[in-house]
Design goal:
The structure is a single chain. This protein has 10 helices and 8 strands. By secondary structure, the protein is of the alpha/beta class. The chain has 2 domains: about 220 residues, Spore Coat Polysaccharide Biosynthesis Protein SpsA, Chain A (Alpha-Beta Complex); about 70 residues. Strands 7-5-6-4-1-2-3-8 form an 8-stranded mixed sheet, sandwiched between helices. The longest helix is centred in the C-terminal third of the chain and has 31 residues.
Amino acid sequence: MNLQSAHNIQISVVVPLYNEEESLPELATWIKKVMDANGFTYEIIFIDDGSKDRSWEVIQELSINNPSIKGISFRRNYGKSAALNVGFEHATGNVVITMDADLQDSPDEIPELYRLITEENFDLISGWKKKRYDPLSKTIPTKLFNWATRKLSGIELHDFNCGLKAYRYEVVKNIEVYGEMHRYIPVIAKWAGFKKIGEKVVQHQARKYGSSKFGLERFINGFLDLLSITFVSRFGKKPMHLFGLLGCIMFFIGFLFTLWMGIHKLWAQANGIRLRLITDDPLFYIALVMVILGTQLFLAGFLAEMIARNSPDRNLYRIKQKIGSF
């Protein structure tokens, strides 16, 4: 699909946030300073993911003084993936840049990210926080997951979960981010056909306000999400290729075991050799289980194939308010 940006905006900055009222004015001012210094036409889209503080009121106040600031407010907290997906739907810039609202991502990186997309023709540039200001309890599991993701996806990035990324307009209009898959957007983009994915070392700022919204459970969820995105990317539209293959293999092995036991029993009887009953042989039950599981896996693949072909894509989040013209 060849899409073009609908408006003459060079950069859309998408900022998902949750309870970040203290950092928003400073972030908005910082982004505006960088954009004005480089002469960029831009828009800032703040996605308030059901904040319980004054974040939405702050966004409304900021938009009064800066018409480039737009806002979308969710009725409740849906998670970062939903916020990014809505931001991508509403972004109109030729280059879309995402960053976190906690001031740990530096807007000073924007000009170089924009250049890499527009001049070097990358589809996606992911930030790499090579020097981090995080405790070891966070950095060590992060390195482990980044290593696992590199091995499974074949994408040579050091920091898949960095919030600071730049995308070509066509990329964000052709991918869907759901669940907690924001950690693996480069993987989603690759499976959507965008293979020129690069990396840029970016500055990591120490958190200035508030506290992290993610706990240790994100590492467990991250591993499960990695398995999920790997499966969905490869077999989401063709589940029969996985379940059907496994089912046929198991059924065939179970059938061979059964056939061998039957032939062996007949041969023994023909030669006057006394054997125990087939039902007394443990191998019979192994073969029976494999035949049953093989049949069930094949049927599961068939049903999944029918569902995949007929189910529409649906976004279940609900927007409460918007600021700006979309």
